[in-house]
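hey can u check if this looks right to u? its 756 residues, i copy pasted from the old doc so theres a chance i mangled smth
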Amino acid sequence: MDSFQPHLPQQRLPIATFEQLRLWIEQTAREYDQEAIVLTERAVRVQSLSQVGQFTLGVSPQFCAVVWGNPPKPEEGTLLAVGFSLEPGHLERFLEDCPLKTPLRDRALKHLQAYELQPDQHSQLTLHLAQFISDRGSSMTSSPATASTTGQMEDALHQHRQQEQLLNQVTTQTCQSVALAVLISNTVDRVCRFLDLDRLCIYQFDNYTQDSPQGDRPKLPPQSRDCITYEALGHESRPSLLSRQDSLNWRFLSQFRDRYQAGETLIFSQDSLGEAIPPVSQAYFEQLNIQTHLTVPIRIQGQLWGVLLAHQCDRPRVWERREQEFLEHIADHLSVAIYQAQLYAEVQQQKETLEQRVEQRTQDLRDALVTAQVANQTRSDFLATVSHELRTPLTCIIGMSSTLLRWSFGNLTPKQRDYIQSIYNSGEHLMELINDLLDLSENESGKTVLSFSEFSLTQLAQEMFCMMVDRATVNGVHLALDLQLRDRQDRLCADRDRLRQILFNLLSNAIKFTATGGQALLRIYWQDADTVVFEVADTGIGIPEEQRSLLFQMFRQLESTYTRQYGGTGLGLALTKQLVELHGGLIKVDSEVGVGSKFTVRLPCHSSTVLEQKSPPPPRIPLPPRKGHVVLVVNREDEAILICDLLTAAGYHTVWMLDGSTALEQIKMLKPVAAIIDRQLPGMDGCELTQLLRQLPNTQSLKILLMTDPLPPEGLAYCQEQGADTCLTHPIEPEELLTSIIELLVEPLVSNSDSE
């Protein structure tokens, strides 16, 4: 973030004048209205403290003023750029631009909206300001101790600047994600030297341990609680409390937990120790020669974490208000650092857990895929081997039974002829099943090659009709042929044998599942100039709608009763579907139980110059997804699980977060490649989170997909104005979500290639 530069009239003035203007605004605001709001740089969000500078702003329905000063650089001496204004418009812009804490900004804006300019008010305020500066100037020049007073003021200003520099250093280390133990140790050492304390330490409540920093601070065991964890000594002669971890001496701090929880700073002098702490702790304090004991609470997200203990042993110390406020600011900065470390630890744990889950799931999928491939290959090999082994004896059975039927040596009795005919028919049927198994095995292994040629549709239809009419007659089914072919529509380029097999399977099923007295029909016509349609309809038993999904699966019939009544293995339609798709066609079924079924096959007309289809190319290996994390911010568990599983299966590492306030910090640390944010989030609106991400330097280029309820066009436009790259409305379609994420991540690659 750049340094804060308010839109105020500015002038280079001495530091003393700037401090007088700050004091005038504070006093005048209180004089006009006791409920007036006075804000200083302490009201700024901690992350932005180092960029804001110093300011005082006072506002009430009767008064408004602001003064701002940019800390001087060493080469600028005691002069600094000062901005000052009494205009409500300037104050409003200052409140909007300055990174103030939200509740304080809202209260100040509310007062400013109620501000009413009274006649001659600017003139009165100007005269009042002139009188104030004149009185302070005359008192300084007329007093015998003018030089001393000026020196004290310069010392106070110098100390104030040192405080600001120290706070800025702590803020900088916090933003740089310095290790928590190192940050706390450095801060305690610097503050101890700055305030000239004999001892400054941190007493930690409950169970919270960190790795030991470089130095003599021991690493606390996991069961430790209620003890001193950090310490800085002003003099080497002072005894260390880290080696005296007797919690009994510090147990009295627990009796003030409620006051610490409320944010109260407590000071105990040697005179008041007897009334405040038990005798065992008094003796301990006397042994350590503690003259003054100050405690400042450290609270994280409103919960008490520990206290900052400041000891003065060489003399009783009177704590000034600015020193107390400085320690309170230090405690606030430490709480932010501790909370950030906790968030980072949680993110790391979630990251490791998610990575382990992704790796385990990926490995499980790979194992399952390998197992399925091995099983499929084993089945195909088994079918091919068994089918080939069975065809040899079947050829003998069919051939010899056929010979006996035609040229028997001697006369056959009718019963013998019936037996031989039954053997022949069963052998033919078994051969058909074996051929189907071989075809299926070849199709699944990718070995099937279609032989394209040009032939007559009329001739093929009449051949199939003559082949099936006898079977239909035996079953008592009337078979009809309907050719709707015009001139020059009789020729088709396809694999004639495979098409004959398709029609044979469909007609066989139509005849088999049609009762005596029913009808079966073969119809052929052209849908357009490039697509021929084959329809096989019957008046059979029909197919229930809930069972049609099983129709084209191998070794499946719709019900066990069909198997017992009609026979079959369920291979015919599975093979038919594969052959149709090899031709680049489609097959569908329309059916009604008790009325009949109609199978429709649509085949494209291939060029007659193609004699043989090339073997299908090997499947293209998909490119791996862009590496990195995808952060998902949504508080609905079912939706989150679905999206996490979808992105994980697509190869992305997904981190799921529940609320926007936590996600903001985690996204800054994770640096993901994309973020999927739900607009309806607890605590922070998804648009607000998107806007904040766009304002941060390291997330300005982050790809953001915003999920929202259905909105009018202007609503979606508003979401994109806040920084969303794309918006999806509920309910979210998984394929659409995945496609959108892929398009967002590959978009820079596409644009680069286009530019080349």
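The chain has a mean pLDDT of 77.
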